[in-house]
Amino acid sequence: EFRTDMTYNSWLTRVDEQGIDKTDSFKLTTLLTSDVEIAAWSGNGLPSDDLCVQNGILVTKSSRWPLCVDPQMQIVTWIKRKEEKAGLTVKTFNDEYIKFLELSVQYGKPFLFENLDEELDPMIDPVLEKRYIVVNGQKMITLGDNTLEWNDNFVLMMTTKLSNPKYTPEVMGKTSIVNCVITLDGLAAQLLNVVVGFERPDLEEMRQNLVTQMSENRQVIKSLEDTLLRELAASKGSILDNDELIATLRNAKAKSIEIGESLETSARTSEEIEKTRMLYEKVAKRGSILYFAMSGLVAISEMYEYSLSGYLGVFETALKEAKPDKIVDNRLKNLREKMTQTMYDYTCMGIFEKHKLLFSFLLTMRLQIEFSEVDMQDYRFLLTGGTSLEEPAPKPAEWIPDRFWSELFKLGKMDEKYMAISAEFENDITTWKSIYDDADPMSIIQDYDQRPKSLSQLTPFQEVLVLRCARPDRVLPAVMSYVAASMGERYVKPPPFDIAGSYADSSNIAPLIFVLSPGSDPSSALTMFAAEKGKEIASLSLGQGQGPKAERLMEDAFQSGSWVLLQNCHLFASWMPKLDKILEQLDPRQVNMDFRLWLTSYPSDKFPVAILQNSVKITNEAPQGLRSNLVGSYLMDPINNEDFFEKCLEPNSFKRLLYCLCFFHAVIQERRLFGPLGWNIPYEFTQNDLRISARQLRMFIDESPAEVQFKAINYLAGECNYGGRVTEKQDRRLLMVLLADYYCPGALRDGHAICAEHPEFAVAPPASHEATLEYIQTLPMVVPPGLYGFHENANLTREQNETYSLMDSLLLTMGNASGGDSGTSMEDLIGQVAADILGRMPKAWDVHQVQQKYPTMYRESMNTVLVQELNRFNNLTKVISSSLQDIQKAIKGLLLMSEDLEQVFHSIFNGKTPGLWLAASYPSLKPLGGYTNDLIERLKFFQGWVDHGIPVAFWISGIYFTQAFTTGASQNFARKYTIPIDTLTFDFEMPTDQKPTKKPANGVYTYGVFLEGCKWDWDTWELAESDPKVLYVPVPMIWIVPCKKTELREFPSYECPLYKVSTRKGVLSTTGHSTNFVMPIQLASSRPEAHWVKRGVAMLTSLDS
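The structure assignment produced for this chain is given below.
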């Protein structure tokens, strides 16, 4: 688009203004090249669409050496074929290239540097700049220490696979950077040629012949014109007396008329051919959209790399397999459907289960947006929840969550058609309450008679936007229903794991990659498949020093046609470039056709892109769900071994406790699905942890059959086997609490309920291995969250997190797609937001002046805390203000857009808090609007402290470095009573007077904290179970009282961890404190502590919205 605008709008307009004559149907490509040359380029692999032809011109005609940004590798393939006969040399900067470059310069041969990174080797600067000198009439150039002859026939070309490289201005000045990234329309034009060539080969052949004929005719006309001009110039005397010249003129005129008629006929024929070709345009357009949907997945995982050449193979397969039909419209429909199905199945084989619905929805959206069935700004709202920074009006009812009301308000600000929803909300508040409470809210939203009147004009997709605001936990089922209604049921039922199908898509030079997830092990499935095929597998687990062994295995298999399995490639990243080079140099004619290379790897950003693009990817995940997990454990060695299972000296106790152990193993893995509520860190508990624990259980029962050593087996399984993976204190406490419910004397009794809340889940009675598997199959399919230790609200938390995770992932696939709210341009929208935030930013504090008012005092550490906080916030507001000011300058073209600024730019557009700000900020998960409002409130709190003195109660959530604040409270107490600070700890009280007017004698009053996982009962003044659908509740004001460790009160309580944000996990900072965990706080509770530990109860200083 930029090239077209620059050439045919800007430049041609200036040509017209200058009164310069030009051809009516002027085309730059016609001027700089010819149909014959384009046909030759096409024969060498360059697609013949306009964009690729322009790239070909830039590569061959540029005054500076071309550097091609070529992630789809179309240009590099064309260059290699085009220049092969001219003696092309291909190297990378990692090779020993200098000697080869010198020879190419001397003998005038083409030279190609491929796979460039973002930096060029300074050694080639003289060649890039053509820094030659003339000595005795001969051009000479110095390269390193050598001075060489410069041959004018020498050609240098460079390519990179990076899709968006950041080259320095110096590199841009020395080279001609050619953007060869394929576009949606460019690929559609290429696919149109493929489709027409397959469906109507006669038509494609006729078109090619016409191009050749028309080109030859034009060459003849030009030759005649040149001949005439030459003879006219050489003619002497009167032209009328020159019979030879007159005869030539007469022949030229006749030939010209004949060719002119032929060209007119050809032009008419060409128009008719083009009309027929256009019948297949929608098929090609859909094919292009499918490719970009598939290739967009790489933004979610670095393993989701797909090559264009691989996609073209899938595309051609779909053309062959589509159901034939003599009626063109039916055939076109069959092509579109088969193409979509084939590409969906192909992609789903190589992506994780959690991304399959995402891909289906992405596919649906790309198609509907391209064909104007869905508005881009509506789709963007679904992903971001709106970007408006304006504060909404007060909520009309207390039951409405803040996020619900805020997003509904932003929806109204986005477009006038949504304004009535929030404006008329109060009129339909009873219906909205039903939507909020109902198990299936979408049924009410879609019911014409029941739903609020303001929703009556909405499309099915726009109804999903409303659902996002009101009930984000039900968005995923709504998305599934929408995809099924738009595309068909098969697009929400992905194909099962099919190793045979993947094998059929592979070749002897394209590896098959198992992309691993925690708990998955494809080796057994591969061994069984190899046995079916009668193949031997040479297996090797990669690691330090295993490279030469792997190379020998492959060399032998190349000849013998056997299979090689290289496991855990992510653990030997340093060798992977070597594997990439080996595979790149393979010649399919010299490798046994039966050879296959199988690789396994966890997702890794070090995995070579070329291998990923040219491979067949397969995902094989561990079983999901409690029942599947239990079955998987019982089919695992050694539990499936009859001797191990049946021959324990006390079989009854062993079988009961083994069942409990397997149940515990399933529960701790299923808790990961609930995010931070389940585990602060999602540990990868494996079958090896279960295996060693089962063997130890058998060993201890055999050694002491009369009395089970519960203390020993709890310690070994909890602290050593599983606990060896657990690095976080709160997670270790949870692990031991959970295990105590399974490894306990009660488990040896008949009918012992694993969870008191759900007696239907009882310990399996001692029986045979087969009978135990049958018992597992009788367990309920739907597992209540209480079985894992959670409150019912945990399902709501999990489902909301899944929705927001899906939307964030989809947002990544949009890249830099533009289009703002209400038709506003991207730049205008960001400029407005930047101006709004800058207008709300107060001036920086004069810290020196504040220090004079609040000097460093021995007995008042809070003065030091204040000064340190002001310095931190000054630094943060400086980063924010300077980046926004730079954004404003960059939009106006006054400043170069750096990589950091570009990230800020797109974060603001997506309504996200920029990473540049968060790097200088306190932890926050809030969107841009929420973060800005929160920051302004924090600044107001400290301004109040500066103006009015130390506050009676501190907003602990507004403090940047909370640990410094609590340390200051301890110091004040220690200095007041002359007590060593390391002998102190904190006691916590909840005063009944929640609005004190005086500071406490000791310690500090704090407020602004929230509880997750339970609530505070204001009547009994202790912890209690959460109310339905209420995920977070405020905590009463807390009096933090320093005291001696020996004098700490003991009372029925729960030691509740306090975190800054809901992710809960953090890292140790340079101060020695966690970036997230603040401190444990004792909260009154009549229930045992284990109850709240399993609930995942914690306090937070900041919410996500």
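Interim note for the steering committee: The radius of gyration is 36 Å. Confidence is low (pLDDT under 50) at residues 818-823.
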